[in-house]
UniProtKB/TrEMBL annotation:
Protein family: Belongs to the short-chain dehydrogenases/reductases (SDR) family.
Pfam families the UniProt entry points to: adh_short (PF00106)
InterPro entries, sorted: NAD(P)-bd_dom_sf, SDR, SDR_fam
Alphabetical list of SUPFAM superfamilies matching this protein: NAD(P)-binding Rossmann-fold domains (SSF51735)
Protein name (record): Short chain dehydrogenase
Length: 235
């Protein structure tokens, strides 16, 4: 019988790359995303569920759509949203949205599925960000909520290990996705200066398949060199 995985943010970027990797590993994947209709990747065992994690009240409805909920053995938190600006220019709505997507909803979703993950001796993977560990100009709120989910993952590791539930925190550096579409910076053209979603999915795959007898609770993934460029805006 195939194992069941839940992946947030599964319609694009890192979440989609992880979902496709899990499908090749013979998982049934339930992907939670805002706009499943925009995803062109269609597979027999890939079930996209429409859900807005900026509204934690939607989580019970999302859970009801997981028709094989009792078989879930893997939960991957990859959904994200980012707004970078001086603190006085961030609207209350954008601040709340980042807190809900990166902190509140992952905590509620994890809490809702923990009993099942304990029963199945499952695994939880959090996709963090280097912004949660380092100073990020104009990334005050985004870096803070990422730091929060990093700490949550670390505390959860110690709480759940006694129940044979493995918790991993994957912290990527600059990754070439549409994350930068609305920012004033973007990855440099040098391919050594950024990561690709498939590379993060590769790391997740190895964490899941590892049978060494020990657990890697946290791993930082960085490009070979550091380069970033500012976008040129037309006047």
């Amino acid at each position: 019988m195939k194992k069941v995985a839940v992946v947030t943010g599964a319609s694009r970027g890192i979440g989609l790359a992880i979902a496709k990797k899990l499908l090749r590993m013979d998982f049934i994947v339930y992907g939670i995303c805002r706009h499943p209709e925009k995803c062109q990747e269609l597979y027999e065992d890939f079930h996209l569920i429409k859900g807005d994690l900026s509204d934690p009240n939607s989580i019970p409805k999302i859970l009801n759509l997981l028709t094989e909920k009792d078989r879930i053995s893997l939960l991957i938190h990859s959904a994200g949203i980012a707004y970078f600006a001086p603190v006085e220019e961030l609207s209350p709505e954008k601040i709340v949205e980042m807190v809900q997507v990166h902190l509140t909803s992952p905590m509620i979703l994890t809490s809702s599925l923990t009993r099942i993950l304990k029963k199945n001796e499952g695994r939880i993977v959090f996709i963090g960000s280097i912004s949660g560990d380092q100073i990020s100009p104009w990334g005050n709120v985004y870096g803070s909520v990422k730091a929060g989910i990093h700490q949550y993952a670390r505390l959860l590791f110690d709480e759940l290990r006694k129940y044979s539930v493995k918790v991993h925190l994957v912290i990527p550096d600059i990754t070439k996705t549409d994350f930068y579409n609305h920012l004033s910076i973007e990855p440099d053209q040098d391919p050594k200066s950024y990561l690709l979603p498939d590379q993060i999915a590769y790391v997740v795959e190895h964490l899941i398949l590892d049978q060494s007898g020990f657990v890697v609770p946290e791993i930082v993934v960085r490009p070979e060199i550091f380069k970033i460029k500012r976008k040129k805006f037309k006047l």
